[in-house]
């Protein structure tokens, strides 16, 4: 509820910025609607916040309502001028003056240190915005992800891979908490499905997320990485053949490839039978990295699945990844004792 109200407030504030740059009636009408949506959100979902902000919201809506009514009246009189109004009556001037008076009243309320926008934002402490963002992602997953249990397993496996790469100090990016958050969100939302969409599931998921409001404490660039990572969690790998992807900055492309590559390996591990994150382990090898997938059956089908899934991750890391299947390991400290004395295939 807090996240939704904050999103409505941010949308209204953007409409406020647009209205401040013009006298045209359309941006002011859009601002009135935006503030009304914010008011209804807090009124219906956050009664304690509405009790705090309700008076100022009503006062602003009254002023913006006056501006809208005057714009409508001016349009009506303009159309009926020749038929109903004499030339000696300067109605347009009187309406414009009254409108300007209300615009100035709004400016006085909306600008400066005592701005209504500052008081409205104060009702949503910034220390809570991270929590609001997580709630938004949970709500999106609950509404759009059909196989939510699967996506949670994929998220645990993806984060395990991330932590293992960080422990091996493969690259500085794995110490970046915001990038870890991006991977977690992409994994949890990897199962987004819109049955009514005509595009393939991954493409429609990207479109849906890019059209959705950016969660609090996220930037659009970060949210964009989530959407593109989900787009490339399977199927063709990202490259210059994807025109929209190729228009992104090189840095953005590289990070998307990394997140999508980890997602592909996590999804492959889940499909191969890996259920526990502790069953995944990455070790250094002279020729690259060894990914031990406990719980994955040693079969040609799983070998082929891992071989295909790991290519993008190899490309992103610049390292060869070998995959070793084996029994599930619940305690990483007992790994050596649980290894069976039999040969296990290596996927190269």
Please give a structural write-up:
The chain is 64% helix and 6% strand. The C terminus is likely disordered. The protein folds into 2 domains: 123 residues; 209 residues, Hypothetical protein af1432. The longest helix is centred in the N-terminal third of the chain and has 38 residues. Strands 1-2-3-4 form a 4-stranded mixed β-sheet. It has 348 residues and is of the alpha+beta class. α8 crosses α10. The protein contains 15 helices and 4 strands.
Please report the first level of CATH classification, the CATH class of the largest domain: Mainly Alpha
CATH topology value of the largest domain: Hypothetical protein af1432
- Count of helical segments? 15
Order of helices and strands: HHHHHHHHHHHHEEHHEHE
Q: Write the CATH architecture name of the largest domain.
A: Orthogonal Bundle
- Average of pLDDT: 86
List how many beta strands DSSP finds: 4
β-sheet strand percentage: 5-15%
- Uncertain stretches of 5 or more adjacent residues: 331-346
**Strands of the largest sheet, in order across it?**
1-2-3-4
Largest sheet: 4 strands, mixed
Overall morphology: elongated
Distance between the termini: 49 Å
Structural class: alpha+beta
CATH superfamily heading of the largest domain: Hypothetical protein af1432
Notable features of this structure?
single chain; 348 residues; alpha+beta; Hypothetical protein af1432; 4-stranded mixed β-sheet; 15 helices; disordered C terminus
Compile the SSE list and pairings:
Elements: H1 2-20, H2 25-45, H3 47-84, H4 91-110, H5 116-122, H6 129-144, H7 148-167, H8 177-188, H9 201-211, H10 220-231, H11 243-246, H12 250-271, E1 280-285, E2 288-294, H13 300-309, H14 311-317, E3 320-326, H15 335-338, E4 346-347
């Amino acid at each position: 509820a807090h996240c939704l109200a904050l999103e409505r407030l941010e949308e209204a504030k953007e409409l406020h910025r647009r209205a401040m740059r013009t006298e045209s009636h359309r941006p002011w009408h859009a601002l009135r609607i935006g503030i009304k949506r914010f008011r209804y959100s807090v009124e219906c979902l956050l009664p304690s916040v509405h009790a705090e902000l309700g008076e100022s919201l009503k006062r602003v809506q009254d002023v913006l309502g006056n501006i809208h009514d005057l714009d409508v009246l001016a349009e009506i009189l303009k159309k009926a001028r020749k038929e109903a109004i004499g030339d000696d009556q300067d109605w347009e001037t009187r309406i414009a003056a009254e409108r300007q008076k209300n615009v100035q009243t709004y400016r006085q309320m909306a600008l400066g240190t005592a701005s209504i926008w500052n008081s409205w934002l104060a009702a949503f402490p910034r220390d809570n915005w991270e929590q609001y963002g997580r709630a938004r992602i949970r709500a999106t997953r609950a509404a759009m992800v059909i196989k939510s249990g699967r996506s949670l397993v994929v998220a645990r496996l993806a984060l395990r891979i991330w932590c293992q790469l960080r422990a091996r100090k493969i690259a500085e990016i794995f110490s970046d908490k915001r990038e870890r958050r991006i991977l977690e969100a992409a994994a949890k939302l990897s199962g987004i499905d819109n049955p009514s969409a005509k595009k393939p599931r991954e493409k429609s998921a990207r479109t849906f997320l890019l059209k959705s409001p950016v969660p609090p404490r996220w930037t659009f660039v970060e949210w964009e990485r989530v959407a593109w990572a989900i787009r490339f969690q399977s199927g063709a790998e990202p490259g210059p053949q994807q025109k929209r992807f190729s228009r992104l900055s090189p840095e953005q492309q590289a990070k998307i490839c990394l997140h999508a590559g980890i997602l592909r390996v996590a999804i492959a591990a889940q499909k191969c039978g890996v259920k526990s994150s502790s069953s995944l382990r990455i070790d250094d090898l002279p020729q690259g990295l060894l990914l031990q997938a406990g719980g994955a059956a040693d079969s040609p089908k799983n070998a082929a699945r891992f071989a295909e899934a790991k290519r993008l991750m190899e490309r992103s890391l610049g390292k060869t990844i070998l995959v070793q299947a084996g029994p599930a390991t619940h305690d990483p400290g007992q790994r050596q004792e649980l290894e069976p004395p039999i040969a296990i295939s290596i996927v190269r």
